[in-house]
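Regression check, tetrahydrodeoxyuridine case 132:
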Amino acid sequence: MSKKDDLIQAAIAAMPSAYAPYSNFQVGAAICDENGIIHTGVNVENAAYPQGSCAEAGAIAAMIMGAGRQITALAVAGRGDVLCTPCGGCRQRIREFAGPQTPIYICGPDGLRHTFTLAELLPASFGPDNLS
Ligand code: THU
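Current build output:
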């Protein structure tokens, strides 16, 4: 399997580990970092709804803990007919560690559905460069 396939399969495999008792919408995310290491995350909901966190946020936290600092590719997996694209807040979280051409693989339980670049999901973004 290619690294891309590994990443997609890691996001799909993470899905059942999500804690999503309120939405029943389990999401898995997988990041490949600059060292070629894959970091995964899932959504973790909370009875106080706004305190829930997205799968992408969990995967970013895992990457930072694993000493990764760059997202070279990211896969997100969720069920349903509509593409499970990262929410607006997560697009900005991803932006902190990724470039405009970073691929974002949107997957369903059966595999890849669509590929976006980060720039397609978050055009004209504000990022670390703005502060330098
Ligand atoms: N969710 C994610 O974890 N990532 C996405 O890309 C879209 C939405 C979660 C948040 C919430 O726990 C559930 O999916 C329903 O919105």
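Comparison notes: The helical segments are 3-14, 55-65, 88-95, 118-121. DSSP finds four helices and five strands in the chain. No diff flagged against the previous build.
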